Predict the 3D structure of the following.
Amino acid sequence: MDHQDLRTLRILEEIENSHTPSQRDLAKKLNISLGLVNAFIKRLAHKGYFKITTIPRNRVAYMLTPKGMAEKTRLTYEFIHFSFQFYRKARTRLQEIFSDLEMQGGGQVIFYGAGELAEIAYISLQETSMKLIAVVDEQKIGERFLGMDIRNPDSIKGMPFDKIIITVMNSGNKILDSLLQKGIPRHKVAIVN
């Protein structure tokens, strides 16, 4: 499922849940520019997924059409299928990483990244005898995740770990390069995706 389909699904969901979301609200919820939301709205309305009507005070309301409901259902199915495939692939990769580490006698891991992939990694870790000693994420320092305070990645050097598991989607190689530049040996780092 690509970003465009995912955004389309989120816009259709918002329109179904609230007939009068402003484009500014949609931009905030989708974390995209107002201009991009405007372009999506025009394209989806042109395709017949919803109708735009004017309501008092210069506001508009969006009404999902049967064609829009069908598209939302199709995209929801695709999203669920994509999510399930992603979960299975991540679990398989994590089981490989943890199995190799256990065979090498390793027992302490660090997760680099505090998101959905780290949650899947945590579930997989529970099936082993290994211990999660820290979660690091430069974007979420000080927040709580999996019952731990998220730490600064710079603190890794002082920790006794056997493996850093990169649990960030789409940025694994960039993080790997950063860790290698900090002197972390390549054999002590694994990328999930």
User: Anything to note?
Assistant: The longest strand covers residues 50-55. The two ends are 16 Å apart (CA to CA). The helical segments are 3-17, 23-30, 34-46, 66-103, 116-125, 172-181.
